[in-house]
Write a structure and sequence with these properties.
Elements (H helix, E strand, L loop, with lengths): L6 H4 L6 E15 L3 E7 L7 E6 L5 H4 L7 E10 L7 E12 L14 H5 L9 H23 L3 E2 L5 E2 L11 E2 L25 E3 L4 H11 L1 E9 L12 E10 L3 H22 L1 H10 L4 H10 L3 E4 H10 L16 H11 L4 E7 L15 E9 L3 E8 L4 H10 L8 H8 L5 E7 H9 L20
Parallel strand pairs: 3-5, 6-10, 12-13
Antiparallel strand pairs: 1-2, 1-4, 2-3, 4-5, 7-9, 8-9, 10-11, 11-16, 13-14, 14-15, 15-16
Helix pairs in contact: 4-6, 4-7, 6-8
């Protein structure tokens, strides 16, 4: 039986090959009097394979009817190309037509806008740009696991459905089997005791709290999976469903947390440059002319570390006209983050020791009683890429922070138990995978680096 070959494999060969089988989709076709030239792509790489079809081949009349988007199986030989632009081509001995796409196939040989392609997200992976994006996404997913495995981390599958609100922001998707009208209790609130889990439950915004439990037993762990936030925002940086890389390390302080975050970013960028060169080159040529320079600057720089207060002083002392007002005790906006990384420091920075009033309850309170051991890693073009902290390991301090934040100690009894039984200093962070992909590809809209974006009013596909 003839073995199927992929285009990515064939392009690496050093000698002609007889009796190959290639399957894929037609990108373009040109007919001459005695020959047809068919460009086929199978998704394995950016480049197409040119198929040369002689008129003496069986069913040549039917083959001439093939259209863009049609699927074919090509049997033949890989030979040196007689034309320019490619090293190899396939001389077809037989072509089996798997399916013929109608002339109305939406992806013809022309430039399509990203906005249009979002309306046909089920077909956009067949374009060069989106095929490249999702190959890079696949390779980087594998590289994430390799990075942590090489460092002795254990991979943990944390719950997608949870009763905890890690961030305390309240922007949660509720999970329920109750049908309207909702049963109410004597306090006039929804009676979740009659729901599937017997309590209010939501889609998770973070796997952190669960990962902490395993860090305090297995040592260094990480979770990498989907998270959800019901933020009614239609910006280029937000989607309702996104993927997070979240390591948690036992016996690790804030400085060690920063070290790991910096190493992870540099490692994944270097991996993409070394492994996805052809696909990355497409973005450097057509999406962001400064992409190569930006990425090389990041992996060659020592990330500058600066306390939050000093960062605020720099921003307040600048002559920039910011859209959002800034003062000590407010969170940084994207425009502030990009000013610091692109104009002032001109490289990635790590801001640490934020006011406790703008950070979640689980971050370790510093000796000043006013700031917490939080850190954000900011990079050019994107702004915040990583957010993390040293976790509060002291039971009494944690309980006071929870009460101050209006959280129920009874609801987090299991989390408090981890501080009651064998507590140790530990830390971790979250890296938004889509934002990393935006950084590496130069793509400016988060909707274009995730296969099927979920945004307010959009649940198609």
């Amino acid at each position: 039986m003839m073995k199927r070959k992929k285009i990515a494999e064939l392009l690496k060969t050093t000698a002609p090959i007889d009796n190959i089988l290639l399957k894929g989709w037609i990108r373009t076709k040109r007919d001459s009097k005695n020959f047809s030239f068919i460009e086929v792509n199978d998704g394995s790489c950016l480049k197409n394979m040119q198929i040369v079809v002689d008129e003496i081949i069986s069913d040549y009349v039917e083959i001439k009817k093939l259209t863009t988007g049609s699927a074919v199986a090509v049997s033949g030989s890989l030979v040196p190309s007689q034309g320019g632009g490619q090293q190899w081509e396939v001389r077809a001995a037989k072509i089996d037509i798997i399916s013929i796409a109608p002339e109305t196939f939406p992806l013809q040989k022309k430039r399509h806008t990203d906005e249009y392609l979002r309306t046909i997200a089920h077909l956009r992976p067949r374009t060069n740009k989106y095929g490249a994006i999702f190959r890079i996404r696949s390779e980087l997913s594998w590289a994430v696991h390799q990075f942590f495995r090489d460092r002795g981390f254990r991979y943990i599958h944390t719950p997608v459905i949870t009763g905890s609100d890690c961030e305390g922001a309240g922007e949660l998707f509720r999970v329920t089997t109750l049908n309207p009208p909702m049963p109410m209790n004597s306090n006039g609130k929804i009676d979740f005791s009659k729901d599937f889990f017997g309590a209010e439950s939501n889609l998770t915004v973070s796997g952190q709290l669960s990962a902490e439990m395993f860090a305090l037993s297995l040592g260094d762990v990480y979770t990498f999976g989907p998270t959800f936030r019901a933020e009614n925002s239609n910006t280029s940086r937000h989607v309702a469903e996104f993927w997070m890389i979240e390591p948690e390390m036992a016996f690790c302080d804030l400085a060690g947390n920063m070290d790991l975050g910096e190493a992870l970013i540099k490692n994944l960028i270097r991996f993409a440059i070394d492994t996805c060169a052809d696909d990355l080159n497409l973005f450097a040529r057509f999406v962001d002319k400064t992409l190569e320079k930006t990425l090389e600057n990041i992996i060659s720089s020592d990330f500058f570390r600066i306390p939050y207060k000093d960062a605020i002083d720099i921003l307040l002392g600048s002559k920039e006209s910011f859209e959002f007002n800034l003062s000590y005790g407010t969170d940084l906006q994207s425009e502030h983050e990009r000013y610091l990384t692109e104009k002032y420091f001109k490289k990635p920075i790590i801001i640490y020791d934020y006011p406790k009033t703008i950070k979640p309850f689980y971050m370790r309170l510093n000796d000043d009683g006013e700031t917490v051991g939080a850190m954000d890693i900011l990079v050019p073009r994107i702004g915040e890429l990583i957010g993390g902290s040293q976790r509060e390991e002291r039971l009494d301090v944690l309980e006071k922070r929870m009460v101050g934040g209006g959280l129920s100690k009874e609801s987090y009894w299991w989390y408090l138990d981890s501080r009651r039984y064998g507590t140790v200093p530990h830390s971790g962070f979250g890296l938004g995978f889509e934002r990393l992909l935006m950084l590496i590809t130069g793509v400016s809209n988060i909707r274009d680096v995730i296969p099927f974006p979920r945004t307010p009013g959009n649940i198609d596909f």
